[in-house]
Design brief:
With 124 residues, the chain is mainly β. 14% of the residues lie in helices and 50% in strands. The chain is built from one helix and eight strands; from the N terminus they run H-E-E-E-E-E-E-E-E. The chain is globular.
Length: 124
């Protein structure tokens, strides 16, 4: 039984580190450095690679704090997906995927619906 628990832990650790697989074409339109802002004035500094790796610094201006996120980013079926390898803003999301509806995407701009607010990202 102890061996089985150890195998499960190792398998989970490997899957957690790798994250989901998706075609690079689902991330490529978002390659670059973006700056997003929400209704509270929080600033999101997002970097996305052509293969979908992302890092983001969230500047919680009203709380005068910053936190970092990294993982994988892609679009599919009208949704933007963030898979968090590491989420210092909310550790409950580590190893999880958060998906939000894509409101719009045009040259140099995209907007996502976070339910109670939106984030508008502009290409730097």
């Amino acid at each position: 039984m102890r061996w089985l628990a150890m195998v499960g832990f190792l398998w989970t650790g490997t899957a957690f580190a790798a994250g989901p697989e998706f075609p690079p074409s689902q991330a490529a339109p978002y390659e670059g450095q973006w700056v997003g802002v929400d209704k509270d004035g929080w600033v999101y500094e997002l970097k996305v690679s052509s293969k979908g790796k992302f890092s983001q610094v969230v500047n919680q201006t009203d709380q005068k704090t910053k936190c970092k996120q990294k993982g994988k980013f892609w679009e599919s079926e009208g949704q933007i997906h963030f898979w968090y390898q590491s989420n210092k803003c909310n550790t409950d999301y580590n190893g999880q995927t958060a998906s939000s509806p894509l409101v719009r995407h045009q040259d140099g701009l995209f907007e996502i619906d976070m339910s109670s607010y939106t984030i508008v990202y502009k290409l730097k």
